[in-house]
Design a protein that fits this description.
With 234 residues, the chain is mostly helical. It has 7 helices and 4 strands. Bound molecules: magnesium ion (MG).
Length: 234
Amino acid sequence: MDLDGTLAEWHDLHENAFAIGAPVPAMVSRVKAWLAAGEDVRVFTSRVDGGDTAAADPAVSNSVLLLYQQTDKIVRMIQDWTEEHVGARLPVTCRKDYAMKELWDDRCVQVVPNTGEAVADRLAAVTVERDELLGRLDRMRSASRVYEGSGAEADRIMNAAVRQPPPTGAGNDITSLVIKDFQTRADFGEKKYGTWLKAHNGRDALMDAYQEALDLCVYLRQAIEERDNPKCTT
Ligand SMILES: [Mg+2]
């Protein structure tokens, strides 16, 4: 695991090769847990690169470079620090090796193996996809609520019809009235067209019936509207 910015705070370039920032508590706890689990935890830092990094930086003076070149001394300084804060003198290295399972570092960008794609980008894409799916789910839920709502309304109307009392009374016989109406209509048709309605008369009976049904719906709705919301006469 990296030192500066990961296990220890790092706010500015250390002029002093022998200074380490304050421990980062969350990372310290993590390292302690790894150690308790028997993991091989190492400090992975360019501080022990023999001064190569410092030598490449023109801002580093010769006297400071000499400090960075004292690798053994820097390793001891880091181990003193880890002993104090994580309770163990951890191995210190600037070399990655094949047995490394994980590298914890504040500058690492993890890639999805063999793709060149950053894990963070993959995660962002998955998050967008997740939000899109959640949005779609929300819309489906709203639609289903609307559907349930209209279902309840239909139930209310059906229940109202079922709750109606059985028919009674001594009014006019409706079937007789309808038969009379049929006769009147037939006579009207014969007068108007010169014949009663007969099969194979050249008309599309289904379409005629459908159009009459549309008119019927409109008139039924008009009647219900006029019954439920009578015209204000005051
Ligand atoms: Mg770092």
